[in-house]
TrEMBL record:
GO terms for molecular function: dihydropyrimidinase activity; metal ion binding. The keyword Cell wall biogenesis/degradation does not apply. It comes from Agromyces fucosus. InterPro entries: Amidohydro-rel (IPR006680), Hydantoinase/dihydroPyrase (IPR011778), Metal-dep_hydrolase_composite (IPR011059), Metal_Hydrolase (IPR032466), Metallo-dep_Hydrolases_sf (IPR050378). Residues 58-452 form the Amidohydrolase-related domain. Its EC number is 3.5.2.2. The modification N6-carboxylysine is found at residue 158. The keyword Ribosomal protein does not apply. This is Dihydropyrimidinase.
């Protein structure tokens, strides 16, 4: 077993920072030591197999991206990253675990959807991976199966109030699934947008000839997110189910979460980098420069990018500071422009929804530290520690402490990252939603369970390094 000492760095946790050396023994962290300390009378640096010099750098727990969609079938095509390409890109960006969504489609048994997901992922991942279960068909059989999933390490499930005819569940179905959530402790994850109303608005826009990507954001108005978020909260209250709202983008949805949390309800939310940095005006063309252009399709995702003038982005940052939102995931759901986004030429409703960011989440969120939106500790908390606690991985993941998996990132705050297709991009996409971003900070070294998988500009990992994570129940409930 290889022993490694990461020396000279500043170890950052969700609660503080300290100059410390980290001793890794095989796959786990053995000790966090005073800098240069001896262990049992032995000079540690002289006795290990490898020393990683982290002088001037941060040593943080590997990122956990709790919302990804590798190979998701959507809109007549499939998300373009496989478990192999997507998890390798994640590793390049300092993410060492993902939680992907296994899909049960309408008419399918959960067991079969889940087995298919295991088959896609097994032996292909660069980093560790777990699953949430998408419940696309609520019936007596699927509810019974859902109850048994915690035994298989799947302790959360996602439902959709959007996408009628695809993943959509009505309130009665949601209520029944939430009763399972209450009984088992599984976390209900909700895509909170009023899909039936959105579909009417979208069809009316297309009938008026408003077919450009910009109208995707118009149809999916924030009122539809606020309303659905409130409805999900009330159904969760009624059933006493713990609830987690995914990809929150509207400030009014955050207000709903804050309101419910202030009443003591077990309600949580995530946002994503795209809702912090990107906007309807800038990406989809409301200001005119891309008006009528199909370029905006690159940023079509749901929930949609929101208006900066309405203050949604500022509200997301604020909520991350006040803990009205607890964490940041990517909702990584990449599609190429060619043959995929292009399916929506002439009709924005047919553009596959999704943005790819798995490789850039840690860097993009570090910009919040640079600009003073969040502290260094909060950066670690939002991207690693809380995802671990929220989804039953804490202790093994999300923290640098003896006994934890040695998932560690050495991050250089004085480094620089240029994002773009020809630059840092490893995702399987023919464009980058973040093209041209020149940002502070750099992922220098990445260890996944003790193995160095990224070393500067070298990738040392392999397909199949990643193992399936059997998760426990959420460790974050009130
Ligand atoms: N939103 C997306 O942008 N893509 C996939 C599914 C979703 O809810
Ligand atoms: Zn969703
Ligand atoms: Zn998603």
């Amino acid at each position: 077993m290889t022993t490694t000492l990461i020396t000279g760095g500043t170890v950052v946790s969700a609660t503080g920072r300290a100059a410390a050396d980290v001793l890794v023994d095989g796959e786990t962290i053995r000790a966090v030591l005073e800098p240069g300390a001896a262990l049992l009378g032995t000079d540690v640096a002289a006795s290990v197999d490898r020393v990683i010099d982290a002088t001037g750098k941060y040593v943080i727990p590997g990122g956990i991206d709790a919302h990804t969609h590798m190979q998701l079938p959507f809109g007549g095509t499939e998300a373009s990253d496989t478990f192999e390409t997507g998890t390798r890109a994640a590793a390049w960006g300092g993410t060492t675990s993902i939680i992907d969504f296994a899909v049960q489609t309408y008419g399918q048994r959960i067991e079969d959807g889940l087995a298919a997901w295991h088959e896609k992922a097994a032996g292909n991942c660069a980093i560790d991976y777990g699953f949430h279960q998408i419940v696309g068909d609520v019936n007596e059989a699927s509810l019974a199966t859902l109850r048994r999933l915690p035994d298989e390490g799947i302790t959360s499930f996602k439902m959709f109030m959007a996408y009628p005819g695809v993943f959509y569940s009505d309130d009665a179905q949601i209520l029944k699934a939430m009763q399972v959530s209450r009984d088992t402790g599984m976390l209900t994850m909700m895509h909170a947008e009023n899909g039936p109303a959105i579909d009417v608005l979208a069809t009316q826009l297309v009938e008026q000839g408003r077919t450009d990507p910009f109208y995707h954001g118009v149809a999916r108005a924030w009122e539809m997110e606020e309303e659905a978020t409130h409805r999900a909260i009330m159904l969760a209250k009624l059933t006493a189910a713990p609830l987690y709202i995914v990809h929150v983008s509207a400030k009014q949805a955050v207000e709903q979460l804050a309101w419910a949390r202030d009443k003591g309800q077990n309600v949580y939310g995530e946002t994503c980098p795209q809702y912090l940095y990107l906007s309807l005006e800038d990406q989809l063309g409301a200001k005119g420069e891309q008006w009528g252009s199909f370029e905006g399709a690159k940023w079509v995702c749901s929930t949609p990018l929101r208006s900066r003038e309405e203050g949604h982005q500022d509200s997301m940052w604020q909520a991350l500071r006040t803990n009205d939102l607890q964490m940041v995931s990517t909702d990584h759901c990449p599609f190429c422009m060619k043959d995929q986004k292009e399916l929506g030429l002439g009709d924005f409703r047919k553009i596959p929804n999704g943005i790819g960011s798995i490789e850039h989440r840690m860097d993009l969120m570090y910009q919040g530290v640079v600009t003073g939106e969040i502290t260094l500790e909060r950066w670690v908390e939002l991207t690693s520690t809380t995802p671990a606690r929220m989804f039953g991985l804490y202790g093994t993941k999300g923290v640098i402490q003896p006994g934890a998996d040695a998932d560690i990132v050495v991050y250089d705050p004085n480094g620089h990252t240029s994002i773009g297709l020809e630059k840092t991009h490893h995702m399987n996409m023919d464009y980058s939603a973040w093209e041209g971003y020149e940002i502070d900070g750099h992922v220098d070294t990445v260890l996944s369970r003790g193995k160095v998988i990224v070393d500067g500009d070298q990738y040392l990992g392999a397909k199949g390094d990643g193992r399936f994570l059997k998760r426990g129940l959420s460790q974050y409930l009130i």
